[in-house]
Amino acid sequence: MSTILQKIADIEAEMARTQKNKATSNHLGMLKAKLAKLRRELIVPKGGGGPKEDGFDVAKTGDSRIGFVGFPSVGKSTLLSNLAGVYSEVAAYEFTTLTTVPGVIRYRGAKIQLLDLPGIIEGAKDGKGRGRQVIAVARTCNLIFIVLDVLKPLGHKHLIEHELEGFGIRLNKKPPNISFRKKEKGGINFNTTVPTTHLDLDTVKSILSEYRIHNADITLKEDATADDLIDVIEGNRIYIPAIYVLNKIDQISIEELDIIYRIPHCVPISAHHKWNFDDLLEKMWSYLNLVRIYTKPKGQLPDYEAPVVLKAGASAVEDFCNRLHKTLIKDFKYALVWGTSAKYQPMRAGATHVLEDEDVVSIVKKV
């Protein structure tokens, strides 16, 4: 482990020393690829996994999962206790929470699991403290709450982003629009559909040679950077939306609060006084991007109490049937749909029809 960390430190030092210009772009691209490979070895050691830690494998329940990530004593446990009514030990000293504490809230009919993760320390991605297990659980979440102390937010924000980035988590980003396909022969075929300012054929070849890839088709559909290309080649990156929860706003002035409100992806709150929780839950709902579908048995009123919750982008009638029961799609004839996705009420729809939030669906089976 220490040799890998030493290699990473050496490469980072060399990258810091190297001037960024057109002549050094190939060399920097190769260094970034080396760095990504070493970081992958840190995440998944070559000799298989290490011993299991207590309290980190929490069974996934509900429709979505949210992880609370932050430095020790920023108010994560207080926030979880006040949101979900779950007791997570709270104290004025650091590192109070030592294992993952789960809680569940119901919001707009959806069941959402909240995970209070132990405090991250600097160097977590390199195995310090329990950081690697904390970040590994964060990779399984649908949304991350990065809880920050409003009195020292920027330093903590950059450190946490750096730790999560080093573990292959990309916050509030979309996967790069790059087509990458390995092949048996034919060399490197590099195409672009847009003007590019960061990558050229030589840089791409130097990055691919580090991975010992000498035959591949690559098409850039956006002005991507070397980091984007490495993310696509590695293939183990996870793109998760994040909300920066700035806690302890009872300790700042109204003028400072006005400035904080302009920061993107941020919600200022006071976990202790339960201030601005409604704003936080509203933003949480929009970032989770869930679709609620109400079921309507034949000849009965729709069930508005327990919706079937699907993710936007996977909300076709077929997904709805599979959520109810895996064998239902075999007997599926058509669906009757009421709501915003229907052109008229009710509308007969096939398995590929995409449902929208708060649609009502009645499934008609084959006789």
Task: Give the structure's gist in a few sentences.
This protein is α/β, with parallel strands linked by helices and 367 residues long.
Describe the structure.
This protein is of the alpha/beta class. Helices cover 31% and strands 24% of the residues. The chain has ten helices and 16 strands. Strands 2-3-1-4-10-11 form a six-stranded mixed beta sheet, with helices on both faces. Helix 2 runs parallel beside helix 6. The longest helix has 19 residues, at 25-43. The radius of gyration is 24 Å and the shape is globular. It starts with a helix and ends with a strand.
> Main β-sheet: number of strands, strand sense, barrel status?
6 strands, mixed
- Span from first to last CA? 62 Å
Helix content: 25-40%
Cross-sheet strand order for the largest sheet? 2-3-1-4-10-11
Order of helices and strands: HHEHEEHEHEEEHEHEEHEHEEHEEE
Low-confidence stretches: 50-55, 87-97
Question: How much of the polypeptide forms β-strand, as a percent range?
Answer: 15-25%
Strand pairing plus helix content: what structural class?
alpha/beta
Secondary-structure topology with pairs:
Layout: H1 2-17, H2 25-43, E1 64-69, H3 76-84, E2 101-107, E3 110-116, H4 131-138, E4 143-149, H5 153-166, E5 169-171, E6 178-182, E7 188-192, H6 201-210, E8 216-220, H7 226-234, E9 238-240, E10 242-247, H8 254-260, E11 266-268, H9 277-288, E12 290-295, E13 303-311, H10 317-324, E14 332-338, E15 347-349, E16 359-365
Parallel strand pairs: 1-3, 1-4, 4-10, 5-9, 7-8, 10-11, 12-16
Antiparallel strand pairs: 2-3, 6-8, 12-13, 14-15, 14-16
Helix pairs in contact: 1-2, 2-6, 2-7, 6-7
